[in-house]
Prior knowledge:
Elements: E1 6-8, E2 11-13, E3 17-19, H1 29-37, E4 41-45, H2 60-78, E5 84-87, H3 95-102, E6 109-112, H4 120-124, E7 130-135, H5 138-152, E8 159-162, E9 168-169, H6 174-179, H7 185-203, E10 209-212, H8 218-226, E11 231-234, H9 236-239, H10 248-255, E12 262-266, E13 272-276, H11 279-284, H12 310-318, H13 341-355
Parallel strand pairs: 3-4, 3-11, 4-5, 5-6, 6-7, 7-8, 8-10, 10-11
Antiparallel strand pairs: 1-2, 9-13, 12-13
Helix pairs in contact: 1-2, 5-7, 8-13
Bound molecules: flavin mononucleotide.
Amino acid sequence: MGLKPLRINGKTVDIPIIQGGMGIRISLSKLANACINSGIVSTISAAQIGFLNKNFRKDPMGENKIELKKEIDKIREINPDGILGVNLMHAINHFDEYARFLSTMDIDFIVSGAGLPLDLPEYIKDSKVKGAFIVSSARAAKILLKSWDRRYNYMPEFVVCEGPLAGGHLGFSKEDMESGNVMSLEDIVGETKQIVKIYEEKYGITIPIIAGGGVHDGKDMARMINVGADGVQISTRFIASYECDAHLNYKMMIVNSKESDIVRISSPAGLPGRAVKNFLTEKLKKENIEVSYCVDCLKTCKKVGIPYCITEQLGNSSAGDDNGLIFTGAKAYLIDKLDYVESIVNEIIRDCKLELNLLGGM
Ligand SMILES: Cc1cc2nc3c(=O)[nH]c(=O)nc-3n(C[C@H](O)[C@H](O)[C@H](O)COP(=O)(O)O)c2cc1C
């Protein structure tokens, strides 16, 4: 198998890598421009993007919309033709309003995970923006494809399969993660491919399968291509780039982490998450962390008796607080320096091609 260009919404990149969306304020325009300039697809995360704005606590949706537009404009000024998407978690409140708003923006796709975005086509089907989803099982892919087909006669632009080594919220139960009763990313890709094939044939189209979660280097990427993925989604590796929008303190927590520092935590979203061990993760073993305010961010948050507020803690860490929540993928401990996005991409592609026997003479 080789590396094929990735086509999304009528545009093509030769390097089939998507930089995954990272909230809160980790993947914004600086990282996006660097990724697009390096020849890959970029995703910004919509999650509480207006967090630093003065009015955020009073009008979170208004401020989030302002920041989304600002960041998209900053990308389009430099990269009018790059492939750009926005990650919009289905678990957020007012998903419909955000999706409708984003469908009017100059972006190529909305990709949605953290729940089943059964209704996404409803808000975007008459716009130029395409829809895609992130799943952690072939079963979830089947439910979504069936529903999008029946209700909207609409197919995703691509499907991201996210395995158990991913960062942020994980699409597996706490019990399954603890007992190790989770499928490998390779198996999720293989099974999902079979389901997707049925709809590719029905519609006479190609739906690229993108493998994400623990893709750290070229060898990981080659393994995914060999099991049938059309590309990979990489996030954690790009946090440790000079261009990443996160505060330097956040980046250094990733760079300095050891394997034993990568821990799992429960999120008020009702899903497990993965983070770098710090004051917050240690304190949570003994007690809940007081919540200072609520912006009603997640449909799934119970608001009362929760261990901590996810918006507050993720937002604080992206702004530089080492004691906030430092979301990460499982392989962060393999990163030992900051680097430029272009050099990270070049290294991954060189090693992937070597592994796939597409390069000689090294
Ligand atoms: C700091 C961080 C924040 C993330 N934020 C989001 C998010 O807002 N929405 C989402 O769907 N996925 C989010 N993710 C998941 C990533 O987009 C991606 O799919 C996954 O982390 C890929 O695995 P990797 O980090 O091992 O490369 C986040 C991951 C990280 C590390």
